[in-house]
Specification:
This protein is α/β, with parallel strands linked by helices and 417 residues long. 32% of the residues lie in helices and 14% in strands. It contains 13 helices and 15 strands. Helix 6 links the parallel strand 6 and strand 7. The chain is globular and about 70 Å long.
């Protein structure tokens, strides 16, 4: 019997047939346009992220969105009340159109580029900012939107009047069958089913859709099988895409053989040249051991997060940077980090530098690449490359990793020459 590889399958998405490899959307600009475009050029699907796009635009296109926002709200920097801090919706629209538009203009090949749209970027106006981000992405020609970091019970209603509502591909990330059922029920009035469902398991990087204490009790293959079986019983032809802990082409092939439409992968692409992480941080990922990785509760979103224990943002008691950023402010201008920071300032009135261990200023630290989110198998990255003469691990190209997933068999990993 011939052993199959990923390339023996195809991801059927409407009338399209793609290589069944999707690169996950890692923010802030970790899944760069270059990374997403490489996936599309090779016939798969790549994601960019909509996390902090004004900051991304400032870096990449020489805009001044963050500076102008800070200038507008500088009077409030010392104030613990952040209810006044609002995003200019025109700026959010412009930044999204700019980044998505330039990415799509550069797209080549038969694949697709999607944007990962996070519901937990509440921005002190959850519904209004989410609507602008999604509509602007559609305006700028994005191939599809993956609804992430939340249940998105009202998200489809925010774009149902857009002319591309039925044309663009729309998908949802869930971590349980119940979450998918709830999404479908709440969005049934739109008459628009998702084009794909990403099932993210407990070994994924970054925010997890499980409890802090019970994430390890769940298994990706089991959840994926439940979702596939339920969709089949309901006569819903929606491809299911498992994600989290798929480290080799053979891992991917097992899921495809079990009925998955494609796989979503990310960890191995964090150490590619196209990834937006600084090169010195990529070396930290290579050097990590299994014991260097933890799931903690420091995210102010309330979701558990998987990251490297050595992340500089852990314990950092910096002043909240809501006037410049403020992406996690809820509809009442609140953020769990603000409360934690103010508590420590009150407890240590004479301290020149304080530590805040239970929460982190996620906006600032993600912007500065100081929270090193990672997948469970990050400790295996060192086995995917070689060291150079200086003792550093060699960075890989996105194409090298993509092709390894696509063609490898028997659990093997292709090392660079």
């Amino acid at each position: 019997m011939t052993t199959k590889c990923v390339d023996d399958y195809r991801f059927k998405l409407g009338t399209r047939e793609l290589v069944p490899i999707m690169i996950g959307g890692m923010g802030v600009d970790i899944s760069t346009a270059d990374l997403a475009l490489a996936a599309a050029r090779l016939g798969g699907v790549g994601h960019i992220s909509d996390a902090m796009l004004p900051t991304v635009a400032d870096r990449r296109y020489d805009t001044k969105f963050v500076k102008e926002k800070l200038k507008k709200y500088k009077y409030n920097v010392e104030n613990t009340d952040k209810t006044d801090i609002k995003f200019d919706l025109g700026v959010i629209e412009e930044a999204t159109r700019l980044h998505v538009g330039k990415t799509m203009a550069a797209k080549r090949g038969d694949g697709m580029v999607f944007i990962n749209c996070m519901e937990k970027l509440t921005m002190n106006a959850p519904k209004e900012t989410l609507k602008v981000r999604m509509n602007a992405a559609l305006d700028a020609g994005i191939d599809g939107i993956t609804l992430a970091a939340g249940l998105h019970l009202g998200s489809l209603a925010l774009i149902e009047d857009h002319p591309r509502f039925r044309d663009a591909k729309l998908g949802i990330i869930v971590s349980s069958l119940r979450a998918l059922q709830l999404f479908l029920r709440k969005n049934s009035r739109s008459g628009r089913l998702p084009d794909y469902v990403v099932v993210e398991g407990p070994l994924a990087g970054g925010h997890l859709g499980f409890g802090l204490e019970d994430w390890s009790k769940y298994d990706l293959a089991t959840i994926t099988a439940e979702v596939i079986a339920w969709l089949k019983a309901e006569h819903l032809d929606i491809p299911v895409i498992p994600a989290g802990g798929i480290f080799t082409g053979s891992d991917a092939t097992r899921h495809l053989k079990a009925g998955a439409g494609a796989v979503q992968v990310a960890t191995r692409f964090t150490v590619t040249k196209e990834c937006g992480l600084p090169d010195d941080v990529k070396q930290e990922y290579f050097k990590a051991s299994e014991g260097d990785i933890e799931v903690n509760g420091i995210s102010p979103t309330g979701y558990p997060m998987r990251m490297l224990k050595k992340s500089p943002g852990i314990g950092s008691g910096i002043r909240p940077n809501c006037e410049a950023y403020g992406y996690i402010l809820d509809s009442n201008g609140k953020c769990a980090y603000i409360d934690a920071y103010n508590r420590e300032v009150t407890a240590q009135p004479d301290a020149k530098k304080i530590k805040v261990w239970d929460k982190t200023c996620l906006c600032t630290h993600m912007r500065n690449f100081d929270i090193w989110t990672c997948g469970h198998y990050t400790y295996r990255l060192k086995d995917t490359t070689r060291k150079d003469d200086g003792g550093n691990y060699r960075l890989l190209s996105a194409e090298h990793v993509f092709r390894d997933y696509q063609f490898s068999k028997e659990g093997k990993i292709l090392l660079p020459e």
